[in-house]
Design brief:
Layout (H helix, E strand, L loop, with lengths): L5 E5 L3 H4 L7 E4 L14 E4 L10 E4 L4 E4 L8 E3 L14 E8 L2 E9 L8 E6 L4 E8 L3
Parallel strand pairs: 1-10
Antiparallel strand pairs: 1-7, 2-3, 2-6, 4-5, 7-8, 8-9, 9-10
Length: 141
């Protein structure tokens, strides 16, 4: 939230709230194609099964993100990708623009038009078709 300005607010994924172990694994909850740029919401923590030797992710240094090396199926257990390399939102995600001026707060639902990390500006589309550029900030609990 910004004072006297607008910001997109997104919720913190469950992965971030749980402590990681030396070898952290996740269960895939949404099918991911090869070279997909996953977000934290695509996974949930899971115990490692010992079958995670084949790396499921590669770091795309040009874009600063993790990409899938192969197709990943729901329910599959893989080594956890580094959190810094995951986008917070992807195109099509529903977000809220949160605007505050003094005691007045206005929220408006929008759709992300691009993937983004927290702190980045991204383009979103409102229900009336207007395209806006707004910074992405993490929701306060």
């Amino acid at each position: 939230m910004t004072r006297g300005g607008a910001a997109l607010v997104f919720g913190v994924a469950a992965l971030a709230a749980q402590p990681a172990s030396a070898e952290s694994c996740v269960r895939v909850v949404r099918a991911l194609a090869p070279s997909a740029a996953p977000v934290a919401a695509d996974f949930e923590r899971a115990p490692c099964t010992g079958n995670t030797a084949q790396a499921a992710f590669a770091y795309d240094a040009g874009n600063g993100i993790a990409r899938t090396r192969r197709a990943l199926s729901p329910g599959e257990i893989v080594s956890e990708p580094p959190a810094f390399a995951l986008y917070a939102v992807r195109p099509g995600d529903k977000l809220l623009i949160h605007t505050q001026s003094g005691p007045v707060v206005i929220e408006r639902e929008v759709e992300a038009l691009q993937a983004a990390h927290p702190g980045q500006k991204l383009f979103v589309k409102a229900a009336d078709g207007k395209v806006l550029s707004i910074p992405l900030v993490e929701a306060k609990p």
